[in-house]
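haha ok so turns out i had the wrong file open the whole time. this is the CORRECT one, sorry everyone. sequence first:
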Amino acid sequence: NLDMTTLVQYWLNNPGQNYGFMLMIEGLDNQTAYYDIRSSTHWQVDTRPTLRIAYTTDPSVPTATSTPTYTPTPTPVNTPTPGYWQTLVLQQGREGYTGMQDARIDSYAPDVNHGDDAYLNVRWSNDIWPAAADMKGLVHFNLQTVPPGAVIQQATLELYQVSRSNATPMNLSVYRILRTWWETDVTWNRAMQDVGGPLLWS
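then structure:
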């Protein structure tokens, strides 16, 4: 699970900036390693990526204004007061939710779109020079079902890992995406293109 609290609050405060996020493995020395994660198109709905949000619309709770941290770090969680915090679960195909898109981008197939794949593969490769993340996952959740003005207590991204290459500890990082992309046509090369604006992630 990955803590997305600050980033989700940032998107709610700045809805025009919600272009989703990128998943990638970073910083492995002299190793190639990967995760296979089920995507939003996997046939088994309850294993698709899930964003679980605890929030309140009580005006007595101050709105978070901190600068978003894009690499998740453990955050202490307050114990919810019954009836005070509400929970919203966003998962493609669950209770009619259809606001998610995701896709893998792959440097080995830089012009191929993987938006309809059942898996999001993320990999760090030591087989290229310099070593780098050569497969990354792009994910976007539409947050329009979260009430306007909501204050987020906790937002957690839940991923269903099918397999991994080895038992080596791996850091799965989250980066905020900075511009529009589409599940049906995004590729490695399109993501890397300079379109006269920001890079795809930060």
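Confidence is low (pLDDT under 50) at residues 65-71, 73-82.
again sry for the mixup
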